[in-house]
Write a structure and sequence with these properties.
globular; binds heme C; Cytochrome Bc1 Complex, Chain D, domain 2; alpha+beta
Length: about 500
Amino acid sequence: MSIKSRGNLLRGVLFGLVLILQTATTEGRIFQDEEHNHPGEDLFKKVWKPNQTDKSNSEDGLGPMFNGISCVACHNQGGIGGSGDNIANVQILTVLPRQDSRRNFRLDQIALEMLFKQAVKLHPDFEFQNSVILHRSSVQNEAYGRWLKDIFEFKSVTKATGFESNRKLVEERGRLLFETPIHRVKKGSAKDRYTIQISRRNTPSLFGVGIIDMISDQDILALESAQKKTDGPVKGVASISADGEIGKFGWRGEQSSVAKFTAQACAIELGLSNVDHPQARLPFSKSRYSIQKSHDISKSQIKELVEFVNSLDPKPIRRSKTHSELQLLQKGQEQFHTIGCANCHVQTVGIAKNVFSDFLLHDMGPELADASHSIRKKTHSPAHSPVYGRSKAEFEIQNPQRWQTPPLWGAALSAPYMHDGRADSFHDAILVHGGEAVSSVDKYQRLTPFDRKLVLEFLQSLGDDSTGGNEELPPETHGWGTPPPRSRQGRLVRKQP
Ligand code: HEC
Ligand code: HEC
């Protein structure tokens, strides 16, 4: 990474920081005149303000660390609760062990122990995992700015290896990636050097999550065993969340229910502490979580919020106006099946009709690898340790190429695509599929241009029937400045191939 791009990276991080704080002081509720009847909708749209220092019991407890000033700031494309543009992406800071000369990470016990020892000095949340959220904003803006500067002031810098391998792979397929999805730098002295990486998560749409919540574990496990039995390359595995349940939410399926995700979103995205999740703390503070006398958002408010999110209907499939239009869309859907897209993007799972996902994790190849949250440290008490009298850390390593198949209902409204929002169009999204999906992508590329268009047209029909509900958000509700232009249906206006 050049000095210049390092500077840009830092500026990008700091820009978000300043932008959001300028608007964070805007008065609380908006949309007051609008017609609505769901109390949770008010909470979803509410612009939260930082706590007044003299009023620690105030419910308006944005921060101390936050990514947005409201839920709707990120979830708004195609209407309240929709997906988000790249400007709303969540950023993740990851530490990885130093690399050897062949650029492979050393993942042995000593390297990992060294890594966690160093990383926890950088951010206290590196205690048990190799990733932390790199928040866009803090109520202690200046101190946070200094902390960020310190992190990004590198002594020596390697090339952005993650990007280079992406670029090469994609060039082989006849096109270039538009942007660096992952930044990597080396930090530390030669002895204890480690690599830090910043990656991004694209905001998914929440339309239909209430139905996904009700899909039974059996339905997902049945898909897993059916894929195991086939000869093909597609072998998805169910994600097991931290609480031991099947995970259906998040790009890696880390969460098992909308309720748990919502409690986590309140605490992490907005910094609203609640009964179910502690809020994100200041990275430069010593205590594990900020100490608070009361919660920023009550149990009943969270319940209302969850009820509202669960009530968001999936976006319908476009109704064809003419018979020939219907025939073309049906042909497109047939192609989608024939070339193997439907092996992962399964049309109907249990009660979720036309959801187009199997909710399983798939190895999507090195093109889509992201090592964030890939290493967890489990420390055993001395009594259970094989080394008597000394606690011994055990590390759990996840495959960084695994992602959960995202549902495609409503996909017409949710560009940009993929976990980091790197693809602007369906065509680009398909081409960056690798790993288990390679043969399907090859088949797509071998289709005639007309048949390819039919597949894209079919995807475009998913959720394209949106009528209304897509008013432009006033800037004070999201804090991102002038919003990008949108089409009538609420999709951001982007170039198509
Ligand atoms: C800064 C942007 C941002 C804000 C603010 C935000 N979210 Fe999200 N939301 C995301 C991102 C990014 C993901 C995907 C996270 C992942 O997969 O790791 C997500 C995922 C979710 C999911 C899981 C959806 C699925 O199908 O996987 C739910 C539910 C959710 N958010 C609810 C909320 C609620 C409720 C709020 C307000 C309390 C909120 N979000 C605020 C960015 C945001
Ligand atoms: C092996 C399973 C698999 C196959 C086969 C597959 N996909 Fe996917 N698809 C995924 C996964 C997993 C992702 C998310 C990967 C990521 O974000 O890095 C994805 C993402 C997408 C997205 C972006 C969705 C979003 O919300 O960002 C689209 C569109 C898509 N696939 C369409 C297709 C089409 C069309 C085909 C057939 C040519 C296909 N997929 C074949 C697993 C698969």
